[in-house]
Structures are given as structure tokens and as C-alpha cells.
Amino acid sequence: MAAVLFTLYAAGLVFAVAFLARYLPRRWYSAASLNGAGWIIIVVITFARALALMLLRGGPQPTRGPLDALISLGSLAAVDLLLLVRLVSYLRYRRAG
């Protein structure tokens, strides 16, 4: 379980940082720019914190059962998928424009 969590957090962090590195708005403080990158910045902070805590504690904390683990891994995989879709759609937009 620790390896799966570490892999999902690392993949999400890579997708989010890759998007932020390619995202170059003219004005960062406009509503459209904050809407486009705001939730991704929050995910970067959250994922980086989770990875740091996992590395410091030596792994994830014990879960309450298989349903808890399934919900945690499923939601983490869903966020990673959203980050990947956001990155790919932005790269397509940039290539078309």
C-alpha cells in the first residue's frame, strides 16, 4: 500500500508541476488565471506535504479497513487523472493556438 500511495502522490505532483511550468498567463492575478491554476497550486502544496510526511514517518498511517483504503486510493487516483487531463488539454490548447 505504501508503494502505491507514494507512486500516486509522485505522479500527481509531476503532472501538476509540469502544468504549472507550462502555464504562462499574461497576468497571474486575473480571475481567469487564478481559476486556471488555483486548484492545481493547492494540489501541489497538499501532495508535497503528504509526500514529505510519508517519507518522514516511514510510510502511511494504518487504515481502518479495506473500504477506507479503497476510498483513499480511489480518490487519489481520481485527482491524478484530473491533473493529467488538465495537463493534456492545456498542451493541446497551446499547440492549436
Topology, element by element:
Elements (H helix, E strand, L loop, with lengths): L1 H21 L8 H27 L8 H31 L1
Task: Please sum up the structure shown.
By secondary structure, this protein is mainly alpha-helical. It contains 3 helices and no strands.
Task: Please characterize this protein's 3D structure.
The chain has one domain (2-96). It is elongated, with a radius of gyration of 15 Å. The mean pLDDT is 88. With 97 residues, it is mostly helical. The protein has helices at 2-22, 31-57, 66-96.
Give the termini distance in whole angstroms: 42 Å
The overall strand count is 0
Major pleated sheet: none
Number of domains: 1
Average pLDDT score: 88
Q: What sort of overall outline do the alpha carbons produce when their principal axes are compared?
A: elongated
Question: Total number of helical segments?
Answer: 3
Low-confidence stretches: none
Strand content: under 5%
Helix/strand-derived category reads mainly alpha
Series of H and E elements: HHH
Radius of gyration of CA atoms, rounded to a whole number: 15 Å
Helix content: over 70%
Features:
97 residues, 81% helix, 0% strand, 3 helices, elongated
